[in-house]
Design a protein that fits this description.
The structure is a single chain. The chain is built from ten helices and no strands. By secondary structure, it is an all-alpha fold. Helix 2 packs antiparallel against helix 7. The relative contact order is 0.12. The model has no long low-confidence stretch (mean pLDDT 87).
């Protein structure tokens, strides 16, 4: 029927499934052990719930924006999935904008996955020893860098008011957790860790090192040990 409004939400089973899948994926590489680690992971879980609840369940951000902006919100069908996407609306609602946004989001997520996977592989193989080679030669906490990139990918893919507000909280939680872990590492490894920390960035290496950072062959590094 002409003029019929598309409503592409209310898919709570899909929302719950996606929360479970991505939480399982992140927990596979970041295994919380202490209370602080579980609290930080709780922020990640809350972020995922807020994200997928709006992506598939109820579009709270779109509902609020259409209420606040009224006719100024430049979309005829704001409750369809395409025009429920804020970045697509900002860039004029074209299919090209949709493809570009999704492509950029995928790039961030793939980079994040690579760092989460490689970081876990090196730490698992080290069996409690200090790791300073491989991707750890470029950043002291590459797994957290990977998590940050995944979250950035989600923010690019489907920004919402809640996730934009929660992302800095999650960032703070993991920066704080990293500092706690560094104090433990310094107490355990002493001067070796202090020297390593002095010359190695915490999360993000210089731009000219990112290609090497993302393409380190972790298997080769393990064979050298």
């Amino acid at each position: 029927m002409h003029g019929e409004v598309e409503y592409a939400y209310g898919m709570w089973v899909v929302a719950a499934f996606n929360v479970g899948i991505f939480l399982f994926f992140i927990l596979s590489f970041l295994k919380p052990r202490g209370g602080q680690e579980w609290r930080s992971m709780g922020v990640v879980a809350a972020f995922l719930v807020a994200l997928f609840a709006e992506m598939y369940g109820f579009p709270l951000t779109i509902y609020l924006l259409t209420g606040w902006l009224g006719d100024a919100y430049p979309v005829l069908q704001p409750y369809g999935h395409k025009f429920g996407h804020l970045w697509v609306v900002v860039f004029g609602g074209s299919t090209l904008a949709w493809v570009m946004v999704m492509g950029l989001s995928l790039v961030f997520m793939i980079m994040g996955y690579m760092l989460l996977s490689d970081g876990w592989t090196q730490i698992h193989a080290a069996r409690g020893k200090l790791v300073t080679d491989g991707i750890y030669a470029y950043a002291r906490h590459p797994q957290y860098t990977g998590l940050f990139l995944v979250i950035i990918g989600f923010l690019v893919q489907w920004p919402t008011l809640l996730t934009v507000l929660m992302a800095p909280i999650m960032l703070y939680a993991y920066v704080h957790l990293a500092k706690i872990e560094e104090r433990r590492a310094e107490a355990e490894f002493g001067e070796a860790y202090t020297e390593y920390a002095r010359k190695t960035p915490a999360f993000f290496p210089p731009l000219n090192q990112w290609k090497a950072f993302l393409t380190v062959d972790v298997e080769d590094e393990e064979e050298k040990r």
